[in-house]
Amino acid sequence: RAKYEGKNRYRFFEKSMNEDLAQKMLLQNSLRNALERNEFVLYYQPEVDTFSKSIYGFEALIRWISPEHGFVSPLKFIHILEETGMIVEVGKWVFKNACEFARKINIDEANRIIVSINVSPIQLMHNDFVEDVKDIIASTEISPELIGFEITETALMESFAENIDKLYKLRALGVMIILDDFGTGYSSLNYLRKMPIDILKIDKSFVDDLNSEEGKPLAESIVALAHSIGLKVVAEGVETEDQFNILQKYKCDLIQGYLISKPVPQEETLKLF
Ligand code: C2E
Ligand code: MG
Ligand code: MG
Ligand code: MG
Description:
Elements: H1 2-34, E1 40-49, E2 55-66, E3 70-72, H2 74-84, H3 87-105, E4 114-118, H4 121-125, H5 129-140, E5 147-152, H6 153-157, H7 160-172, E6 176-182, H8 189-194, E7 199-202, H9 204-208, H10 215-228, E8 232-235, H11 241-249, E9 254-255, E10 264-265, H12 266-270
Parallel strand pairs: 2-4, 4-5, 5-6, 6-7, 7-8, 8-9
Antiparallel strand pairs: 1-2, 1-9, 1-10, 2-3
Bound molecules: ligand C2E and magnesium ion (3 copies).
């Protein structure tokens, strides 16, 4: 009897592995046509100034609405785009659309609104990346000062020197560099000093930890550290008033999270302007 169960369990396990792989291949196949079939959309999530509460900018977050698979989270498909190299084309699409959005919302010269996009390490490492960015800036006629690139520490650590060199080139175009999910990677303070960054984005896990006494000093120190080297700080994933108030006390410059707004479709965002 035990043997029978054991064998059954093994077969169950094997089956679920195959299903995962099959599911992944199905997604991969559908993704090949997703761009030309216009199945991607960008949602935008605001970032507000902690003190004035005015809108500082928006982060573009990709969504895939597939006729076969329904609404698929980027956590499920970005890595497939990366593995297949499709992220390069999709990333260009994201950037171009985000630039067009940035033009539409920046109607008031006196009140600049920044639009940031997430950049995968595969995109950054691609030979044409800087040229492509330059071309899209030119064709969309966007002021590069209105654009931010979000890059994670982990993305930078591989081929560090080469990536840093690219970031300097990007920054020379006038765009801002944002270090995303800060605190989750392995970069030491020594590396931080060498990165050409403008904004540090504290990972949601630190914001979650504000609910405990041990978590507070860590968040407070990250804000102080960022300020001491001249960086602005955003906190991501802020969900409660309590978290907001603590971050305000620590002088965190910008707040993003469900407390302010979830990511919303472009059309809805445009209605604000
Ligand atoms: P990320 O850049 O760190 O984005 C933050 C994620 O947290 C987003 O998930 C956002 O919807 C979610 N979020 C924001 N505020 C809250 C909150 O208060 N509570 C909770 N629970 N979640 C919150 P999303 O949109 O599912 O994106 C997941 C990740 O996928 C992003 O993490 C980013 O790494 C990647 N991604 C999204 N869009 C793109 C894209 O256009 N290009 C690339 N390369 N990656 C993208
Ligand atoms: Mg991001
Ligand atoms: Mg993030
Ligand atoms: Mg994150």
